[in-house]
């Protein structure tokens, strides 16, 4: 029996289907073809609705994942955890640049170049809001609702106050097929898409030099994403040293547009060949997956 995709999922109801259709329409100006998907962004919606693989929350938990990365890749790939807990201490204990994150959500972080000395009370209040609020509900991102709420602090790994280049490896069936490169996050943010041989796919984009540890990072991404039909593994290479960032199973919640747009279909085909057809099969059982809008 395929326990990762139960025939009927309690929270896959008409309301969830309606939200999925509405948010997809809002970003893509079309409804997702959930009964016969061809696009990557459509398959993300199906995963949100039907994939209840119990491995996903542990892999996306920013605290728990570090032990797995250390075991598979080695401790040198892990950004150290300076502190973890449910609420920040009354005073900052750090003087070096640090990064504060929630362990259970995305885009919940603060980059504190002074260790938080300038306005620690405001930082504590902001972090407390992250912990009080559930994450993943309104976009139906199930796995985030299964991660314990909490916080962690890591050393800042950028240079001269700038965030490091973010290399996002798309892994289908255990093989890296694309690398999305994000530069100047927090400033003039821009990104481009490359193939594994570092040929640029994004038209007219600014070229990012090939990272010296590209082969090592590809091998690391494939080691971490092995056993999944699709996962995106985010890595960094500050000062020439490759480091693990996080793993995503719902990139952009399936709402971000690709550049070039045809990559949505190309990656959808890769996912279907790697096993995404299971999501389609499960979606045809029990509750119809096409919501009427």
TrEMBL record:
**InterPro entries listed in its UniProt record:** ATPgrasp_TupA
Identify the Pfam families for this entry. ATPgrasp_TupA
Q: What is this protein called?
A: ATP-grasp fold amidoligase family protein
Q: Which organism is it from?
A: Sphingomonas qilianensis
Q: What is the lineage of its organism?
A: Bacteria, Pseudomonadati, Pseudomonadota, Alphaproteobacteria, Sphingomonadales
